[in-house]
Amino acid sequence: EDLINRIAAGEVVERPASVVKELVENSIDAGARRIAVTTANGGMDLIRIVDDGRGMDRDDLLLSVERHATSKLSADDLDDIRTLGFRGEALASIGSVARLAVASRPEGAESGLALVVDNGRRSGPLPQAMNRGTAIEVRELFAQVPARRKFLKSARAEAAAITDVVRRLAMANPEIHFILEGTDRSAANWPGVSGDGALAARLGQVMGGDFVDNAVTLAAARHGVVVAGMAGLPTYTRANSLSQFYFVNGRSVRDKVLVGAVRAAYADYVFRDRFPVVALYLAVDPAEVDVNVHPAKAELRFRDPGAVRGAVIRAIGTALAAAGF
Ligand code: ADP
Ligand code: MG
């Protein structure tokens, strides 16, 4: 059992940033409006996630750290299994390779309850004073699994990977207030935004106001592919391609078709050694994407890449033309 957990952990929990991704996604699933992430030493010493979501009662709390325990699975959720990957494995896996503390207080409970799973050994739950929501701490990740710890990069690189994960989740969820802090990083505080300009406001917070001021808004649909987001003006470029963000059906993805489509969209304007800056949000019929490539790695395959490519090129081309390019 312990061994199985550790093997599963290798799949789900590659590095501190993958822990952060799983935990923040859980907070989002729990309806949190505010999610605070604290890390130390690139997440290797500490990852703490505090949310104000619906929390867990005693039974759910005990179940949450068991393998294959998920409150999210139902028979007609088969698509969801593929999109969200390893169902009910994250907390159990993390608890098998770190000291995991989970504290939660649901609405109406008089106090919270906290339990600890220390490299596979559970203790608690014990009462803990806290606000409604869930607080999770992961300490000394992989400290007892040297073979995995060895593969981690520097604290600085791991902290940067965590920032990247939180940034993408924040871009996908503008209405949620994200806080990112720790001794190992520069802090971020992105209050939730809603209403008409929500996406532009969030992109301003995360990517910088200069991007929003030098970008066009995308709004186009073609062959069942809806394209939204913002695309930088050809006069506003960056020296590396790290400022291109792609979301499909609300999830951050890396995909060559999208990268290629953006390159083609700017082919007439840009650039030697320069890259356009984009935050592209696609909505497509879930049946048109296969996310089974690797559930934890944000890769996908479009059934009809040509339609997606065409829709993106046209959306950007139309918006840039309207702006005089
Ligand atoms: P999954 O998310 O696939 O269900 P996890 O191992 O990530 O599996 O979480 C197990 C269960 O623990 C979830 O199904 C959920 O019921 C509960 N849970 C985890 N994190 C939170 C949270 N932040 N707030 C409320 N419930 C949570
Ligand atoms: Mg989860």
UniProtKB/TrEMBL annotation:
Asked if the record carries the keyword Signal, the reply is no
Is Hydrolase tagged as a keyword? yes
What keywords appear on the UniProt entry? DNA damage, DNA repair, Endonuclease, Hydrolase, Nuclease
Query: What Gene Ontology molecular-function terms does this entry list?
Result: endonuclease activity
Domain (DNA mismatch repair protein S5): residue spans on this chain: 203-321
Highest taxon of source: Bacteria
Q: What does this protein's UniProt record list under function?
A: This protein is involved in the repair of mismatches in DNA. It is required for dam-dependent methyl-directed DNA mismatch repair. May act as a 'molecular matchmaker', a protein that promotes the formation of a stable complex between two or more DNA-binding proteins in an ATP-dependent manner without itself being part of a final effector complex.
Q: According to its UniProt record, which protein family does this protein belong to?
A: Belongs to the DNA mismatch repair MutL/HexB family.
Name this polypeptide is given: DNA mismatch repair protein MutL
| Whole-protein coverage range | 8 to 332 of 603
